[in-house]
Amino acid sequence: MPKRKLNNIPKQDLPRNLGEVIVRYMEPGNAASTGFQDAHRDGYYVFLLQQSGESRLMVDFREALMTGESVFFIRPGQVHYYLSTSNVTGWLVAVNSVLIDKSFIAFFEEQNQLGPLSLDCASSRQLILIVNALQTSCLSEDDGYPKAITSHLVSAFAGLIANLYKVAAPEPSGKDGRPFDITRRFRKMVRQDYCKIKRPSQYADKLAISTPYLNECVKSVTGMTVTYWIKQESILEAKRLLWYSPLSIKEISIKIGYADEAYFSRIFSKVTAMTPVSFRKSRF
């Protein structure tokens, strides 16, 4: 992992002059020249479609290894960077979330443990065909409907990737009922509001259900409690800030919604088995 601290964690947004999509071909010598050299987070989705070679990335403290024909996605807000590349060819597709179907967004946001996915030749060809069409559409200056075509191609591309992941790791049966829907909505709220809302009862109120029922739903679907997921989201952001920024522990505590630094330190230690100070020192 990088040893130097950043003034803050840089966030990259899509350049306005390039629109809502960037399609970039990667080849040996430029595969790591995609804005991934330094740790940063993006305000958009990144899809990596690799045709050959090997890539090693760090994404939110997890190493991801791509070998040969493979695909991977990085969600907005995740801190990431390349560790190494070797003879890589393929495509990087950066996409504004508004162009991706909400059902595919929901799938991507719910995945915490998924790494790169190996592709068979047929799936790789399908994705490459869409990427080629997407690049042509992005570069088009026709007076027709290039924006609409681009939007549909993005949705097809993201949908095919979501489907490949879903087929490779099918969800257990029974995940289409009300508990699953409540859990999905709860976890989306946590990702958006973990800095401001810490109590399970507050999420239950927003969902118009009782706290015991919320906990029952979340635990039946994920195996973990409501409190667990609130803490996980908070501590992940704390780890990012401890590792990559010069903010003091007190500043980080306040930034992620804990006014009491000592309480934050106790929670951090319980979740990670390390104190915030020890975690920060471990990077050197």
From TrEMBL:
Origin: domain of life: Bacteria
Keywords, comma-separated and alphabetical: DNA-binding, Transcription, Transcription regulation
A GO molecular function held by the record: sequence-specific DNA binding
Keyword Chloroplast: no
Alphabetized Gene3D superfamilies for the sequence: Homeodomain-like
SMART domains from the UniProt entry: HTH_ARAC
SUPFAM superfamilies: Homeodomain-like (SSF46689), Regulatory protein AraC (SSF51215)
PROSITE patterns: HTH_ARAC_FAMILY_2
UniProt-listed InterPro entries: AraC-bd, Homeodomain-like_sf, HTH-like, HTH_AraC, Tscrpt_reg_AraC-type_HTH
Boundaries of every HTH araC/xylS-type domain copy: 184-282
One Pfam family this sequence matches: AraC_binding
Record-linked PANTHER family: ARAC-FAMILY TRANSCRIPTIONAL REGULATOR, TRANSCRIPTIONAL REGULATORY PROTEIN
Protein name: AraC-type DNA-binding protein
Provenance organism: Pedobacter westerhofensis
Organismal lineage: Bacteria, Pseudomonadati, Bacteroidota, Sphingobacteriia, Sphingobacteriales
